[in-house]
From TrEMBL:
Residues 118-171 form the Flagellar hook protein FlgE/F/G-like D1 domain. This is Flagellar basal body rod protein subunit C. Belongs to the flagella basal body rod proteins family. It comes from the Bacteria. Residues 5-35 form the Flagellar basal body rod protein N-terminal domain. One of its GO terms (biological process) is bacterial-type flagellum-dependent swarming motility. Residues 229-273 form the Flagellar basal-body/hook protein C-terminal domain. GO terms for cellular component: bacterial-type flagellum basal body. InterPro entries: Flag_bb_rod_N, Flagellar_basal_body_rod_CS, Flagellar_FlgE/F/G, Flg_bb/hook_C_dom, FlgE/F/G-like, LlgE_F_G-like_D1. SUPFAM superfamilies: Flagellar hook protein flgE.
Length: 279
């Protein structure tokens, strides 16, 4: 009976965590560059049950042999194994602001281990001087003329330096070069991640590489094609209709497990209060 409690509880916890993930996706449906998370559910290993007993052998000494007939397998519940970001290209929307930039992915190499394509990202510098990555190109110029994000992270060029401009009257070419009065002022840094699933999400549309990993420059690589578009932002790749459907499915699965748990609770109450009563 208690095994049933644990199995149902694990199902409720897994669906609760899946609901939280889908809710977070839904709340970021209008966040530029946001990449939706996907959940993978997995069952705990099954337990093989056997019945213990013995068989008497008709001999003078009355020997007996241990007998363990198989009863069957018992499932012990499910859990949410991991969350995997979906790095597919989002729709690109015109904004009319010269400091807004969008990355448009073309052909990306396929990672042999994961079977998934790589991804490209803008390169940023946080307050501690560490590199961070993003697909949110909603940039602006700060009071000192540096190109930054909304939370104050510096946008870096391909050499890892901060991009400093006199004003927002510049032209951004498809190859990432920033032109001012016909002269190249900088080139927006774009990094390539061969295994983007290994990147760590930090919130605010930021990701960081694993410790000790330096991502290569995406420019000049023959098997990588992409464009940098000015006056535009890449939108979230969250499918709102499918996310709402998945939310309802997760809620109904949680509700079904809840009803099973209530049935177990009533059975236990009856066992304690009625079956064991002595008249």
């Amino acid at each position: 009976m208690f095994r049933g409690f644990y199995t149902v509880a694990s199902g409720m916890i897994a669906q609760q965590r899946r609901t939280e993930l889908l809710t977070n996706n839904m709340s970021n449906v209008n966040t530029p560059g946001f990449k939706a998370d996907q959940a993978t559910m997995r069952a705990f290993p099954d337990m093989l049950l056997s019945s213990l007993g013995d068989s008497k052998i008709p001999t003078e000494n009355g020997l007996s042999l241990l007998n363990m007939p198989t009863v069957g397998a018992l499932n012990t519940g499910v859990y949410m194994q991991e969350t995997i970001p979906l790095f597919s290209q989002g729709d690109v929307r015109e904004t009319g602001f010269s400091t807004d930039m969008a990355l448009i992915q073309g052909e990306m190499p396929i990672n042999e281990e994961t079977g998934l394509p790589g991804a490209i990202f803008f390169v940023l510098e946080n307050q501690d001087g560490a590199d961070r990555l993003t697909r949110n190109g909603n940039f602006t110029l700060d009071a000192e003329g540096f190109l930054t994000t909304a939370n104050g992270y510096y946008v870096l060029d391909e050499a890892g330096n901060r991009i400093e401009l006199e004003n927002d009257q510049f032209q951004l070419l498809e190859n990432g070069r920033i032109m001012v009065d016909g002269q190249e002022a900088a080139r927006v840094g774009v990094a390539y991640a061969d295994d983007p699933q290994a990147l760590v999400k930090e919130g605010d549309d930021l990701l960081r590489p694993p410790d000790g990993v330096v991502l290569p420059n995406a420019y000049g690589q023959a098997d990588i094609t992409f464009e940098v578009q000015q006056n535009a932002l890449e939108q979230s790749n969250v499918d709102s209709a499918r996310t709402m459907t998945d939310l309802m499915t997760a809620y109904r699965a949680f509700e079904a497990n809840q009803k099973v748990l209530q049935a177990y609770d009533r059975s236990m109450e009856k066992t304690v209060n009625e079956v064991g009563r002595v008249n």
